[in-house]
């Protein structure tokens, strides 16, 4: 028995604990320990993209880099589209694990596995067939079109492995395990970085594949890492592994599928909204010439790493809050939000200060010494860099809100702050302030995001929302998955009565 925020004692859920129990222990320390591997994974992926771009540009030239840049826009869009659904699966699993409802957790895992395998294969096949049409619709430069087609077709062939790998990474975090996904991210990046130059240049016994080699290294890295991950999860008896004796769980529960899609699409749409706003801002910047565009590009490279701690904290608080929501511990959810907001200010503020102090040195990593773009980039940072502090706090609040299954208010906050505030502000003030209007629009938009997300966090109805209804009453012993068949049937009957699962055949 534990005391709730109202002073009453509440029974703790019985049953097996998640991989890492996020419903007990010190909140600040647990949040940091959980978020650091997520941050490490994000940094690894960014470094991998940078390394691949360097190899392509230095060995194959600017046309090949243009080809991969165009193809990667499609790749990132496809990942963004599925991100929301993987996040919804993460939250579903997290809530079920927090409630110690293993029966429901395994039903979610079984349905999610079937859903993501089917989606991944469909996207991969259609993508390979439609690659030329997709690139033509993007207006890919003619001199880069052939290489872009070659590269993107291999990427689409890798998409089934990429999608399922992404789902398993998120699902493990839902069970409370952020370290294992980090280790497999490290393995994936190490393989990709190793094979990339070998297959591009044909070093030693490897074939010289040119631009196709860069994409093939991604295919090899994802396939090998996914295979090793599945072996590991099977040997550790992870809840995410569906054994042959449990294949009935792979039959899709369309109630769960509907929940993943309905809750996931708005989260995926948020990434698309942000990407479209970024493209729009780049168009505004391009109007001020190549020196300003280069300066903005260098600033963007730095901003990628500045915002990573906040994004890692946002993912961590979502997983942590989801388990506590499932456990009925809303008092801890509030504390998770406060701790996450404070850490977002700290871990975003420190790199901002370091960049401002060492600006001339860090900008030389992206711009040649003496470049006219360096003072412009420094000026951009002086006006826009601090905007990532309110962005980080808003990202944490949105992560906590989404953990309860409330997904539309965070999306609306982003839409309003970007398309109702940032972009109109920049367009309205450019005749008066010039390019400074673009840079100032970043803190203006981020402040609007924080005000909207913070207001809904304080006064919205998200605290009463739930994605799942427990299949067992609070304090009762849930089905652990080890009971005889009649116990499993009884658990499913309770689930059907609660409105979570549909009877088979309906």
From TrEMBL:
Residues spanning the membrane: 74-96, 108-130, 150-170, 182-203, 209-233, 268-290, 302-322, 343-363, 383-401, 406-425, 437-459
Record protein name field: MATE family efflux transporter
One function term, GO molecular function aspect: antiporter activity
Alphabetized UniProt keyword annotations: Cell membrane, Membrane, Transmembrane, Transmembrane helix, Transport
Major localization listed first in the record, in broad terms: membrane
Domain of life according to the entry: Bacteria
InterPro entries xref list: MATE_fam (IPR002528), MdtK-like (IPR048279), Membrane_Transporter-Flippase (IPR052031)
């Amino acid at each position: 028995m534990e005391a709730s925020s109202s002073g009453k004692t509440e029974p703790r859920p019985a049953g097996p604990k998640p991989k890492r129990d996020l419903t007990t222990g010190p909140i600040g320390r647990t949040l940091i320990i959980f978020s650091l591997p997520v941050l490490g994974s994000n940094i690894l992926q960014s470094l991998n993209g940078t390394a691949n771009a360097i190899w392509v540009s230095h060995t194959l030239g600017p046309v090949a880099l243009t080809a991969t840049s165009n193809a990667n826009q499609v790749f990132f869009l496809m990942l963004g589209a599925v991100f929301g659904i993987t996040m919804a699966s993460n939250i579903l699993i997290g809530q079920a694990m927090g409630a110690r409802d293993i029966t429901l957790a395994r039903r979610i895992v079984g349905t999610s596995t079937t859903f993501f395998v089917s989606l991944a294969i469909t996207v991969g096949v259609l993508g390979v067939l439609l690659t030329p049409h997709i690139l033509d619709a993007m207006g890919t430069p003619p001199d880069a079109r052939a290489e872009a087609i070659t590269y993107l077709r291999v990427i689409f062939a890798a998409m089934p492995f990429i999608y399922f790998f992404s789902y398993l990474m998120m699902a493990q975090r839902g069970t409370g395990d952020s370290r294992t996904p980090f280790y497999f991210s490290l393995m994936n990046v190490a393989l990709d970085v190793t094979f990339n130059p070998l297959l591009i240049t044909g070093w030693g016994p490897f074939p010289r594949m040119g631009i196709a080699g860069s994409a093939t290294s991604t295919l090899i890295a994802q396939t090998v890492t996914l295979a090793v991950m599945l072996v590991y999860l099977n040997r550790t008896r992870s809840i995410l592994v569906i054994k042959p004796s449990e294949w009935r769980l792979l039959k899709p529960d369309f109630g769960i599928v509907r929940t993943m899609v309905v809750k996931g699409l708005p989260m995926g749409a948020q990434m698309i909204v942000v990407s479209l706003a970024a493209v729009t801002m780049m168009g505004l910047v391009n109007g001020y010439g190549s020196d300003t565009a280069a300066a903005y590009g260098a600033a963007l490279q730095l901003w990628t790493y500045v915002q990573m701690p906040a994004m890692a904290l946002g993912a961590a608080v979502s997983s942590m809050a989801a388990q506590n929501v499932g456990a009925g511990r809303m008092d801890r959810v509030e504390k998770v939000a406060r701790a996450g907001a404070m850490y977002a200010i700290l871990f975003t503020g420190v790199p901002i200060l370091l960049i401002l102090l060492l600006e001339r040195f860090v900008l030389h990593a992206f711009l040649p010494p003496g470049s006219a773009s360096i003072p412009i980039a420094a000026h951009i940072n002086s006006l826009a860099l601090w905007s990532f502090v309110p962005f980080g706090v808003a990202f944490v609040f949105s992560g906590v809100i989404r953990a309860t299954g409330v997904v539309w208010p965070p999306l609306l906050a982003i839409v309003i702050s970007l398309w109702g505030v940032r972009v109109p502000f920049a367009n309205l003030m450019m005749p008066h302030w010039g390019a400074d209007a673009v840079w100032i629009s970043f803190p203006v938009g981020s402040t609007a995001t924080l005000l909207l997300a913070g207001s809904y966090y304080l006064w919205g109805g998200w605290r009463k929302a739930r994605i799942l209804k427990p299949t067992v009453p609070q304090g009762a012993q849930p089905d652990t998955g080890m009971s005889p068949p009649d116990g499993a049937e009884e658990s499913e009957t309770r689930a059907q009565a609660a409105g979570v699962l549909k009877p088979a055949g309906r």
